Amino acid sequence: xxxxxxxxxxxxxxxxxxxxxxxxxxxxxxxxxxxxxxxxxxxxxxxxxxxxxxxxxxxxxxxxxxxxxxxxxxxxxxxxxxxxxxxxxxxxxxxxxxxxxxxxxxxxxxxxxxxxxxxxxxxxxxxxxxxxxxxxxxxxxxxxxxxxxxxxxxxxxxxxxxxxxxxxxxxxxxxxxxxxxxxxxxxxxxxxxxxxxxxxxxxxxxxxxxxxxxxxxxxxxxxxxxxxxxxxxxxxxxxxxxxxxxxxxxxxxxxxxxxxxxxxxxxxxxxxxxxxxxxxxxxxxxxxxxxxxxxxxxxxxxxxxxxxxxxxxxxxxxxxxxxxxxxxxxxxxxx
Length: 335
Prior knowledge:
This protein is mostly helical. The chain has 18 helices and no strands. It has helices at 2-6, 10-31, 42-60, 67-82, 89-109, 115-126, 130-143, 148-160, 164-177, 182-194, 198-205, 217-225, 229-242, 247-259, 263-276, 282-293, 297-310, 315-334.
């Protein structure tokens, strides 16, 4: 690993570091145990963080034209470090402190340029420092009064604070500036959903129904958070009508039916997907999970057996299906 890292450019090392932390987080999630988070990689992660900081320190020690780009990379790296459980608190604070110092230097060096206070605001927000984030957003707005990203960032903070009315009002400024701004419409509709005003959310999104598919996670997750799975169902019914070739729409529709406790409809959705997408074995395992979660182990085993029959030459399907059948049977024998 040291040989590989030594052959990489500075930017490539930064990218490698980011991917390593992300993979560590994924592994931790799959293991389901925060107590052993990235245990085997912590030492390497810490060394990479330290080396990364030293590299930034060396680069910024020289007053060059490239410092603005280096500072931008430092900000993005600091945000990754701050939000990772694989990095100890002292290194997070070190990165944060240096990033704040450097971006303030950049703001002073380029007065009137809105992107740097906007970068600074996003960094403060990622660390939960909303007071300084709002201050930097006010500065950015004074430089560029109609920059959409400023209103997105301010509205996003209000959402995190649970102040949905302020978030809605802020997003609507961006939408009023440009009635065709779909990103602003999605955000404003999400805030309206959390305000439990579905009629308002629909009013905002209706002008976009002909040109956009409303399956944005911000909308779907908002309805799901409020347990409005009827709305989630309707979103994916429309999505399937417009994009029948997208497998994921079928899976999400089935999941919505499960949340609505309509297992019959969920099964029907998968059965139709088997017909429409005969080459996709993952669908069979999705239906199996529905049966397992609803404690219908007989149907679960039958579905796995059907999967083996549908893909007789696929070794992975054969092995995985047999493994899950054995797991289900073992579980039944212990109950």
